[in-house]
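Morning F.,

Quick status update on the modeling queue. The single chain you submitted on Monday has been processed. Sequence for confirmation:
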Amino acid sequence: MNYLAIDTSGEYLTVIAKKGERAERVFLPDCLAKHSVVLMDEIDGALTRAGMTVNDCDFLVVVVGPGSFTGIRIGIATVKGLCFAAGKKALPVTSLDAIAYSVEDAPVLALVDAGHGAVYACAYEKDKTPVAPPAYYKAEDAAKAFEGFMPLSEKPLLFCGEEAGHADVLLGLECAVEKKAGGLVEPHELQALYLRKSSAEEMRK
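Structure tokens below.
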């Protein structure tokens, strides 16, 4: 399986270029507001080290959210452009998938910090089947709704008085791609997963 995967949905940047059994992986933990500056160079570097081009990819992968509104738009626009140029299909993956797939054989409550005591959340069974669609919750509501699921987040997150577990989203994205590769779409079908209005939209009320 050959693919290029990117995640610009959070403060971090993930790029994976995989050609057969060979994978070149990039994880930059602090890219907030810099995705548009560093993304193309990191993609080019990962592809070069893997000995491949976009044309060698079977498909391209992008994390469609939830997370940073600007980061999500950058990632989707980049993958759409590359897909159209190379005639490839795309695989949408969520940031919550990247968290959940970082652990095996455990029911997981994947969490992305939404600020102001709220989270984007999705609960997954041991086999990573989602219990319910991803949604925006107050933290205490998510805890009550999914009691018994292990809380996991990419960054330090205080969840109902306790620290959520740390997810390796680089590993999780790679595992999610391997499991979800049957869900390819045409690039024009890629849509951002926004679970609430942006701050700008809220301020216009």
